[in-house]
Design brief:
Strand order of the largest sheet: 5-6-3-1-4-8-9
Largest sheet: 7 strands, antiparallel
Number of helices: 3
Order of helices and strands: EHEEHHEEEEEE
Helix content: 25-40%
Strand content: 25-35%
Number of strands: 9
Amino acid sequence: MRAYVPATLPEVLRWYAGGAVPVGTRINAVTSSLRKQHPDADDEELEFLATKAAEETSTVAAMTTGQRRATLAVDLPADATEPLPGATSSLSTTAEVPIADWAAVFVDDLQWYAVDEIAYLT
């Protein structure tokens, strides 16, 4: 499943240096709850909604810390997540998400960067 990890840029840089997104990290993805809430939405629209939810969370984190916001796109098995009670698109990771499973990172106003460019971001 494609998931979106709300973060700040310093968090992404720490995870990159450590080789993985840690267990227990909040992510956003297309869930059955999101599908039920938007029954007429297609897969692309649902992905957009999950991305926007992660972006909103990363915006709050950036505002409270003064850091640049970042949203990391990752691919992970559905069994590597668990739902968060009462959440529509939010899940928690039950396993680390290694760099090999990262797809891209969106920084600030959704500037897209490839995973191999992360080390050069400041």
